[in-house]
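For the sake of transparency, this paper describes our internal protein records without simplification. Because each token names a local backbone shape, the row as a whole describes the fold. One such record is reproduced below, unchanged from the form in which we store it:
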Amino acid sequence: MALFISERIRQREFGREISAADKKALLEGARVCLGASIAGHGLPKGTRFLKAYATTKQGPRRILYLLVVQEKDFFVLFHRPKRDGVGANMSPKNPAFNSALTKHLDLHRDDLADGRIEEITPEAGGVPV
């Protein structure tokens, strides 16, 4: 199991770097047993969305991962406050979520193709792979 984030999603969700507290929340949430699977259409074969909840000093957060089932690798797509328009309701029924998800999946796909993926480890925020 490994945890990754694309460069442009990291910039959108965290800025220049991921704080130690956010890194901890992302790593702790990246477990299948703690997450809730949500519907996703047009996903690559062998992947699914996993929604997790985290509590940080900044308040409750909602995290959405793209899980590659076979390898058990997680890719961070969102890390949002609970009261954010996307974070409040991460479901296909939320138009704001659907719009943001489409954009983030495009960013993820492009960054993956260009090799702009960073591994999140306890020691480092975003380490280029």
About this structure: The radius of gyration is 13 Å. The chain has a mean pLDDT of 90. The longest strand covers residues 47-56. Residues 95-113 form the longest helix (19 residues).
